[in-house]
Amino acid sequence: MTEVLLTADRTLMSNYHNNEFLGFGTCAPPNFIPEWFYSFLFFPPLKASKGFPSAAPYGLRKTEAQLLKEGFGVATVSPDHLEEYIGDTKVLGIHTMDPFGLGPASSTLAAIFKKEPYLAKHFHCLMDSPAVKKAKANGLKIIVGGPGAWQFRYRQKFVKDHQIDCIVEGEGENVVGKLFKAALEGEELPRFYEVSIRETPSLEEIPDIVNPSINGLVEIGRGCCRGCEFCNVTLRPLRWYPLEKIKREISLNLKADNVEGCCLHAEDVMLYGSKNTTPEDEKLLRLNEFVAKNCEGISWSHCSLAAVASKPKLFSQLSEMILTKQSWWGAEVGIETGSAELAKRIMPAKAHPFKAEDWPEVVRDGMGLMHDNMMVPACTLIVGLPEEKEEDILRTMELMDDLEGFRSLIVPLFFVPLGRLKNEDWFKDAAMTELHKQLLFQCVEHDFRWVDSLIDLSFKGKWYTRFLKEFYKGFAGIAKRKVRQIE
Ligand code: SF4
Q1: Per-residue pLDDT at 466
Q2: CATH number for 312
Q3: Which residue has its alpha carbon closest to ligand 1 atom 3?
Q4: 472 confidence band (pLDDT: 50, 70, 90)
Q5: Domain, as residue range, for 278
Q6: What is the position in ligand 1's atom list of the atom closest to the CA of 350?
């Protein structure tokens, strides 16, 4: 009997055709594409053997590893196979990323399309599934965690209606054991459990994953030292994993069927092993060399423009190493604003080691280097930051003009109150000015300009390239029309 089951909704249990960029498709609402076809294109289900998925989200694998380490009987199951196992289970742990579509990308798309995004829809499907309802009626305890846990504070009625017993916010390694034990013993659980800084795990306390993660994603560190006001991550201490620990997790993934590549995950991969905002050449080269030698493909989860701009030679060396295996690689990159004034106020260290007032220049240099070295950034711009003025939006629009020739996706995100700005108001589409709309439209035009060549790069040699390209053209065309309607 498995006393603890772990799962996540359908949009998280996918390898997105081995292309994390496609995962953005889960942020869109149901649209003109039939749902079955849309999910095949953007989030096809993972292969599962007897209901156990071949891989799972990395955060879920960490929780699984921690619970196994503490002696619990745990299994991770696909949401489509819950029914087969849940009858014997006492506690269900659910990993979430953006359960109500309140994250920046999905809330922006929801505002444009006026519909709930796929990821929220599938989370609801999971919670409302007959299997979960029946097990709940028989005494099942439900514990929810993951990067999307903060959203439950804004959906207290949902929590109550679905009788979620506990929501864990923060890094769970040092607390999940006691919470799952209390649940198994039938004790009352705190409805919301915020992991304190004191309970944040040290490097030694973070276990290696014991089963494969989706697309070979492995964490190389946690936390960020740049301190942007609007960000949750910055509230946690910075820790870098030793290379040996990373190698162990990569090797574990490579033994799995269907995992051949590796995605290095950190808030800024360029700063691996550094104590401040200056990249450590030796450490970064050794890490990427190991991945390039041993994996079929490599991607980075995030990287900063300032670190790239501060070490152009190092970045070229890394690119040379990575491009021996592939024709491009991707990462998420934060631009956030083109206004030096606003950058100084809300993200004073984002440009470091350069000055905050030089931010637009840092962006131009960093983006130019990425273009020249075949890194394709998926960039974010934040619309509606507190105290944003008309001049700030104009500066961002000027920067967008300068970025026109750089191969990239640039996604505008409505401001979401997180980090030190968590008590500020949400930015709603009703507050959009003419300038905001023009900026949104500029982003859509930029992405539309690049999308064909990005699809060519992403699906080189695959039979469905031409087909997907047509689909994206159509989808981008509709998005463009929607933005025009808002205008
Ligand atoms: S650089 Fe990125 S991760 Fe770091 S604090 Fe700023 S927004 Fe957060």
Answers
A1: 62
A2: 3.20.20.70
A3: 267
A4: low
A5: 212-431
A6: 1
**Distance in Å, CA 333 to ligand 1 centroid:** 10
C-alpha span between 58 and 64 (Å, rounded): 10
Distance from the alpha carbon of residue 180 to the mean position of ligand 1, in angstroms? 31
Judge contact between 236 and 212, C-beta under 8 A: no
**pLDDT tens digits, one per residue of 287-310:** 999 999 999 889 999 999 999 999
Asked whether residue 193 falls in the same domain as residue 218, the answer is: no
How many Å lie between the centroid of ligand 1 and the Cα of residue 187? 38
Query: Which residue, of 169, 199, 229, is where some domain finishes?
Result: 199
Q: How far is the CA of 229 from the centre of ligand 1 (A)?
A: 9
Give residue 347 CA to ligand 1 midpoint distance, Å: 8
For 358-375, the pLDDT digits (tens) are 999 999 999 999 999 999
Nearest CA to ligand 1 atom 1: 226
Q: Which of 413, 431, 449 is the last residue of a domain?
A: 431
Phi, psi of 302 (to 5 degrees): -145, 150
Structural tokens at position 245: 């620990």
Is 144 within 8 Å of 168 (Cβ atoms)? Answer: yes
Query: Of 377, 439, 380, which Cα lies nearest the Cα of 408?
Result: 377
Within 6 Å (CB) of ligand 1, which residues are found?
Answer: 224, 226-228, 231, 233-234, 267, 304, 334, 347, 350
Provide the token pair at 63: 């929780």
For residue 289, CA distances in Å to 148, 295, 314, 372 come to 33, 10, 13, 20
Helix axes 312-322, 281-294, angle to 10 degrees: 10
**How high is the pLDDT of residue 273?**
96
Both 133 and 267 in one domain: the answer is: no
Q: Is residue 481 part of a domain?
A: no
> Does residue 160 share a domain with residue 42?
yes
- What is the rounded CA–CA span in Å between residue 359 and residue 402? 14
